[in-house]
Design goal:
- The chain is of the alpha/beta class.
- Helix content is 55%, strand content 13%.
- It has a five-stranded mixed β-sheet.
- Helix 5 packs antiparallel against helix 8.
- The radius of gyration is 29 Å and the shape is flat.
- This is Transcription antiterminator.
- Pfam families: HTH_11, Mga, PRD, PTS_EIIA_2.
- Keywords: Activator, Repeat, Transcription, Transcription regulation.
- InterPro entries: BglG_antiterminators, HTH_11, Mga_HTH, PRD, PRD_sf, PTrfase/Anion_transptr, PTS_EIIA_type-2_dom, WH-like_DNA-bd_sf.
Length: 633
């Protein structure tokens, strides 16, 4: 773009007090809309000068430009790009992405290279044809990728006690937790940390609404709910909150709390309220509506939410939301803006659900209500993440007096950080109906069981704890191996694998390998200097057979591994090596990379493993040997 035309374009936008459409700019400058996009991208190449939106283009100040660019990290950009490609069945124009992200086409192209590395384990690839981008691969894999992207937003304590306390500073969340735990214990009910956070959030929101004269007032039939431990506990919690906050818990609010406690808020309630039995307590219209909404989420975003606890809470919330909307009741959410900024994909799901409700129910849903839906979506994914990091367990034990209850409580108390009990039974024949289970703990004899299992005494002794821990260690080890194998294709690249490259010194190898990483877009041009600086401090050769040169700074453009294997040893400082592994680490990926890196180093540190890898004839055989060795860690 010529300087005079650039200046004319900027001056014209500066003279306008509102957004200028692409059509109006095309007519003014006698060029196509595509050329206008090109102008904008060229001008914005170094910094944001021109903002774009569905309304068109306008000039922005330097201050606004800096703010916008700082808000979106490289990894966030990649997530947005991937989400757009997943959701669009047709092609996506690269310049439309440039407009949305306020970036140049070259920046987007770099992001796409990085994105293709991330999605490689999903057997997906972004292809470009002229200006159009397409995500190529199976729909099943696209669904997995979309779920992964959204799950990443909940990895930092979406529903932690601290986040709830920060959101509601006028309430003592920690004191309230102690009171609830005490009441539940009184009725022999147990909850894990995640469920406790969920209960606290529900109760604080409820109390806050009641204080602001927004109590749910609707017809309820408490007589439908039988008196049981959950009912008695819910009523005592309601009484406690009435006294603590000088409010009145209506029958409708008590009804909701009883249903909440009955919807698997305790792992010890084995006849808990489920999506199947919910219509016995809630109008069938709302149950069907919830099913329809989640089906539409699955259809639009490739995300399947199939969890009874979530479904029950979600249905109750949708029912109350519709009631509030039809009765013009206001509800305030102090975290609305934080949710929009920090969890954009989760918030977008909530907007989509809200829009569907508006169309179906012919109501208007305010922004604060959208945020509460985002809470439910976010807590589901946080729960999903938590369960993926735990061993899922079923327990079989006779239901004789309190034997079953005591067994569960002891297991939960000792192993709550590492396993999750998702099924309890007094009859092993019921196990056929269980879904995915990693471990079975049984106080009854088992025959022909295909699931890893531990036989224990009904009243646990120390030896039983040891058997459970040993099985957990083995299962966690297998899980770590699967995770490491998942990243083999992500961080290893055939173009960065070489055999029998013989150079004169370790400095020559560092220069050669860092230059190759630079040419492939992994590292900045001066990366070799920082690797040499690290090498001069202390040799990165170990085990007299392997060298792992790397930078002390995580300043790489993307994470990757360059490998040279040698049939005969070469000098590396004072050592001799036959495997040279140069690593580039991007700071945004350090958490993902650390587990993988540990697994690879564990392999290379063993002489026999390194010796076996050296004998690989090509990249494919090297990867095959590496995979086999990971299985033996």
């Amino acid at each position: 773009m010529k300087n005079d035309r650039r200046e004319a374009f900027i001056q014209y936008l500066a003279s306008q007090n509102s957004w200028c459409t692409a059509t109006s700019l095309s007519n003014t400058f006698k060029v196509s809309s595509r050329t206008i996009r090109k102008y904008v991208n060229e001008i914005n190449q170094d910094q944001l000068v021109i903002a774009s939106s569905p309304h068109g283009y306008r000039l922005v100040t330097r201050e606004k430009s800096t703010t916008v660019n700082k808000q979106i990290s490289p990894m966030d950009r990649i997530k947005i790009i991937l989400k757009e490609l997943i959701l669009h069945l047709e092609e996506v124009n690269i310049f439309d992405l440039c407009d949305r992200l306020f970036l140049s086409a070259s920046s987007i192209e770099n992001d796409i290279v990085h994105a293709n590395k991330i999605i490689k384990p999903y057997h997906l690839i972004i292809r470009r044809k002229k200006d159009m981008l397409t995500l190529v691969g199976r729909e099943k894999e696209k669904r997995k990728l979309m779920s992964f992207i959204i799950s990443q937003e909940t990895s930092n304590g979406f529903l932690s006690l601290k986040s709830i306390q920060d959101a509601f500073p006028d309430y003592n969340v920690y004191l309230l937790k102690d009171e609830i735990v005490s009441i539940l214990k009184e009725f022999d009910l147990f909850v894990n940390d995640y469920i406790m956070s969920s209960i606290l959030l529900h109760l604080i929101i409820t109390v806050d609404r009641i204080k602001n004269n927004n109590s749910v007032i609707q017809t309820t039939e408490l007589s439908k709910i039988k008196s049981n431990l959950e009912t008695n506990a819910a009523n005592k919690i309601a009484d406690m909150l009435e006294g603590m906050h000088k409010i009145n818990f209506s029958e409708s609010e008590r009804y909701n709390l009883i249903l909440l406690l009955s919807s698997k808020t305790t792992m010890l309630n084995y006849q808990s309220l489920t999506s199947t039995s919910l219509n016995q307590y809630v109008d069938e219209h709302f149950v069907n509506l919830s099913k329809k909404l989640l089906a539409k989420v699955h259809e639009r975003y490739f995300i399947e939410i199939s969890d009874d606890m979530f479904f029950v809470k979600f249905t109750l919330h949708i029912r109350n939301l519709i009631f509030r909307a039809k009765n013009a009741q206001m509800v305030k959410n102090p975290l609305t803006h934080k949710l929009k900024d920090k969890y954009p994909l989760i918030y977008e799901l909530a907007v989509f659900i809200s829009n569907q409700i508006q169309q179906i129910e012919h109501i208007h849903i305010k922004e604060d209500e959208i945020s509460y839906i985002a809470f439910h979506i976010g807590s589901y994914f946080e729960r999903k993440n938590e369960l993926e990091n735990k061993i899922l367990c079923a327990v079989v034990c006779p239901n004789y007096y309190d034997m079953q209850l005591q067994l569960i409580q002891k297991i939960e108390k000792r192993f709550h950080d590492s396993l999750e009990i998702i099924k309890v039974s007094s009859d092993s024949s019921e196990l056929s109906s269980i879904g995915k289970i990693d471990l079975l703990i049984s106080a009854l004899p088992l025959q022909n069981n295909q699931i890893p299992s531990v036989f224990v005494h009904p009243y646990l002794i120390e030896e039983d704890y040891e058997h459970i821990q040993n099985q957990l260690n083995q299962l966690n080890k297998q899980k770590r191996i699967r995770e490491v194998k998942q990243y083999l294709d992500l961080y290893f690249d055939k173009d960065l694998f070489m055999k029998n490259v013989y150079l004169d010194s370790d400095e020559d190898y560092i220069s050669f390998m860092s230059k190759l990483l630079y040419q492939k877009g992994y590292v900045p041009e001066d990366y070799g200097d920082s690797v040499l600086e690290r090498e001069r401090m202390s040799s990165t050769a170990f085990n007299n057979n392997v060298a792992v040169p790397h930078s002390m700074n995580m300043d790489s453009i993307k994470t990757g591994i360059c490998i040279i294997i040698l049939d005969r040893p070469v000098s590396w400082g004072k050592e001799k090596v036959q495997i040279i592994v140069m690593i580039s680490i991007n700071k945004l990926q350090r958490e993902l990379f650390s587990a993988f890196f540990e697994g690879v180093i564990n392999i290379l540190s063993e002489w026999k493993n390194a010796s076996e890898l050296i004998r690989a004839r090509d990249y494919e055989e090297f990867m095959e040997k590496m995979t086999m060795q990971l299985n033996e860690i």
